[in-house]
Amino acid sequence: MAKILSYEEKDTWIHRLSGATKLIFFLLWCLTSMLTYDTRVLLVMVIFSLIVFKISQTQWKQVGSVFKVIMVFLVFNVFAIYIFSPDQGTAIYGTKTVLFHIAGRYDMTLEQLFYEFNVVIKYFTIIPAVFMFLVTTNPSEFAASMNKIGISYNVGYAVSIALRYIPDVQGEFTKIRNAQEARGIEMSGKATLMSRIKNTSSIIFPLIFSSMDRIDVVSNAMELRGYGKLKKRTWYMERALKRNDYLVIGFTVLFMVVALAVTFADGSRFYNPFV
Question: Is the dihedral of CA 251, 254, 258, 260 positive or negative?
C-alpha cells in the first residue's frame, strides 16, 4: 500500500537521476514559474510537468489527499484575489472588458478572469514537480544532494529526517485510529462531522506523544554516534552525477533562459492578449 508523499523505489529514469539533479531542476523550475506570468510559457510548463509526473509512475494514492488540500487553498486564493482586488486584471492589462456586474465595485471582467487563470496554471506548473521530487528521491540521497550543492549537512539531515517521518507518522496514525475504533470511538464516515472533529483529539494527542518519544530516541542515537562532531561527513546514499544528470541540468537552465527571454521580451512579465 502506497503511503502519502513517501519515497517508493521504482526503475524509471527519473528515479535513477541524482538527488542533486532533481533538487536543481525543482528549484529552477519553481523560480521560472514564480518569475513569469506569460500564459504561453506557463502552459508549456504545465504540459511538461504532467508528462514528467506521468513518467515518474507516481500513484494517485500517494498524492491524492495532499492534492485535494492544495485545491482547497487554490480555490480560496482565487476568491481572495477577487474579493480584495477585483480590478487587478484591469490594472495589469490596461483594458476593461466587463462581462457582467455583480455588486458595488465588483465587476466580472475578462481581464480579471485571464489574470486569475494565470494564477491557477502557475499552481499546476509546480504541483506535479513537487510531487515528483518527493516521491522519487530517497531522503538520505536528498540530504547528500543538499550537502553537495553547499548546504550544511545539518540542514540536509534535518530535512531528510522530516521526510522519513512522513510514512512513520502515517503508520502510527493508522494504528492509533484503529485502536480507538476498537474501543468504540467512531472515526469513520458513519459518525457526524462534529462527532469526528471531537473524537480527533483521541488520535492527535497520542500521535504527538508517540512522535515526541520517537524524536527522543533518534536524537539520543545521533548523539551516541557522534553526530555533529566533525565539520564534514560522508554519505552512504550519495550518487555521482552521470550523463543524464548533466543533460537534465542543461535542459533546465536552457529552458529557464528561453522562458524568461520570452517573458520579458516586451519589458513586462505579463502576456497581454488584450492589446
Answer: positive
Sequence-separated (6 or more) residues with CB below 8 Å from residue 16? 244
19 in any annotated domain: yes
Enclosing H/E stretch for 215: helix 201-224
Q: Measured between alpha carbons, how far is 87 from 249 in angstroms, rounded to an integer?
A: 39
> CA angle, corner 236, sides to 232 and 241, nearest 5?
90
The rounded percent of the chain whose pLDDT value lies above 90 is 25
In a domain, 90, yes or no: yes
In total, how many domains does the chain have?
1
In a domain, 60, yes or no: yes
Q: What 3 state SS string does 147-169 have?
A: HHCCCCHHHHHHHHHHHHHHHHH
Q: What is the helix, strand, coil percentage profile of the chain, to 5?
A: 65, 5, 30
Structural domain containing residue 74? 10-138+237-275
Per-residue confidence band for 64, with pLDDT thresholds at 50, 70 and 90: confident
- Report the SS3 class of residue 100: strand
Shortest CA distance to 149 belongs to which of 265, 28, 4?
28
